[in-house]
């Protein structure tokens, strides 16, 4: 698509309009859209910068608040020059966090350190848990009714951390806290399309469970359009989806993690949340949320989004024998990660 735009001499102005149109699909025109403030916490980081760009291109956003401990003013100045609807402001340091959050409708949290070669999500927990806890304390104080999109890893633990913080502050609403697992869905769609020969934009693959290793369970038996793939091919696709983050970390040879694809996934899910808030019907995405569809307190599944966040948690649907095995296998690890997040807050 980029090459075709440039060949026609349309330049990046046309490209930006095309991206904005993609986000606005099934939504409202900018003139009819409500005012919506989005705050990005960790906006100067590897995920935060491209995420800031993508949210600036989203016509549903009227105010974009970019926050980080340092470096945000430059990112905000750069992004603010883009001729799209939203007004952009940058905020730095603890003293400006409250101002960044006030009045936010959606808060996206990519803050924290990225994965490095040999680093597990458990290693990440030790560093990122404290960052997430302090940011959620500020959210509870300055924008307690905002939808919170958690990107900071390990999501299987940081979402329970956020829930416990909000409970301790008396502002918890399980309908408004989301673990962003969209990248797992994006990968599953891409890999399935590559193997089946389907047009990737037509592909849909639900991904359930969690957001790390074997807790990621793509339901290729429910994928559309249907494809006649062998058991070996399904197993390989599942494994690649589960190890997608590691694939990128290794390909970058220690110089980064999945920042660009994660930014895209984060922007896609935030766009869905904004459409839900604005009353667009039938907005369905997978997300890691508080749920009672299994015996685990948090679980990723398809969710219908609405004006108050989660409108309906959809069932898992029929699972193949292979998927049933994966479902049973992921439970212990996912429960351990959830418990670790809860214990972090309760013990601090």
Describe the fold and architecture:
47% of the residues are buried. The protein has 348 residues and is an alpha/beta fold. It is globular and about 55 Å long. The strands form three sheets. Strands 3-2-1-4-5-6 form a six-stranded parallel β-sheet, with helices on both faces. The protein has helices spanning 2-7, 11-24, 48-56, 72-80, 94-101, 121-142, 155-168, 182-196, 231-242, 244-251, 260-277, 321-346, and strands at 37-41, 63-68, 87-92, 106-109, 147-150, 177-179, 207-209, 216-218, 283-290, 298-306, 309-313. The chain contains twelve helices and eleven strands. A hairpin with a 6-residue loop joins strand 7 (207-209) and strand 8. Residues 1-12 and 26-30 have low confidence and may be disordered.
Task: Tag the structure with descriptive keywords.
348 residues, alpha/beta, six-stranded parallel sheet, three-stranded antiparallel sheet, 12 helices, disordered N terminus
- The fraction of residues in strands falls at 15-25%
Q: How many DSSP-defined strands? A: 11
Can you list the strand order of the major beta sheet?
Answer: 3-2-1-4-5-6
Portion of residues within helices: 40-55%
Estimated structural class: alpha/beta
What is the succession of H and E elements? HHEHEHEHEHEHEHEEHHHEEEH
How many helices in DSSP terms? 12
Question: What value does the average pLDDT take?
Answer: 92
Q: Outline, from the CA principal axes? A: globular
The rounded distance between the terminal residues' Cα atoms is 50 Å
Radius of gyration, CA atoms, in whole angstroms: 19 Å
Q: Which blocks of ≥5 consecutive residues have pLDDT under 50?
A: 1-12, 26-30
Main beta sheet, described? 6 strands, parallel
